[in-house]
Amino acid sequence: MAETSEKAPKLTKNQLLVFNVLANAAQPLGAYAILDELRIHGFKAPPQVYRALNQLALEGLIHKVESLNAWTVCCGNHDANPPVFAICNDCGSVTEHFDEGLSQNLETMSKESGFTPDRSIIEIHGQCDDCCTDKTQ
């Protein structure tokens, strides 16, 4: 959020606070963990967090990691490409990847089957390199 551009959305105070908590988190956070972090800023109830999360997601600044019921900052511009989340089952790290070929395959599959998707969420669970290395030592 350090850069200012014409495309940058104007965030409310609550949205900026929620975004900053997520940006500084080591892994995705659930709404109640965000609420706990923001109580010192006057947040009292989950709806305050959920409103900010929903707007940040609409602006394309964050993603919900569905299988974790948690939120993370978007790390790239992927207008037509849905992110692929690699989720480590051991340490909880989540990395975001983009694959144009995969996106094209999903689009082709949808067209061939007559299905019109409204969004794609791709999550892969396993072990990150660090956790795999730790177990082999």
Short description:
The protein has 137 residues and is of the alpha+beta class. It has five helices and five strands.
Which overall shape is indicated by the principal axes computed on the Cα atoms? globular
Q: How many individual β-strands?
A: 5
Q: What CATH architecture of the largest domain do you see?
A: Orthogonal Bundle
Structural domain count? 2
Question: Low-confidence parts, pLDDT < 50 over ≥5 residues?
Answer: 1-6
Query: From N to C, what is the helix and strand string?
Result: HHHEEEEHEH
Calculate the terminal CA-CA distance, rounded to whole Å: 39 Å
The number of helices is: 5
Q: Percent of residues in helical segments?
A: 25-40%
Give the amount of beta strand, in percent: 15-25%
Radius of gyration: 17 Å
Helix-strand makeup class? alpha+beta
Q: Could you say what the CATH topology of the largest domain is called?
A: Arc Repressor Mutant, subunit A
Task: Look at the structure and give the mean pLDDT.
Answer: 88
Q: CATH class of the largest domain, anyone?
A: Mainly Alpha
By CATH, the superfamily of the largest domain comes out as: Winged helix-like DNA-binding domain superfamily/Winged helix DNA-binding domain
Strand order of the largest sheet: 4-3-5
Largest sheet: 3 strands, mixed
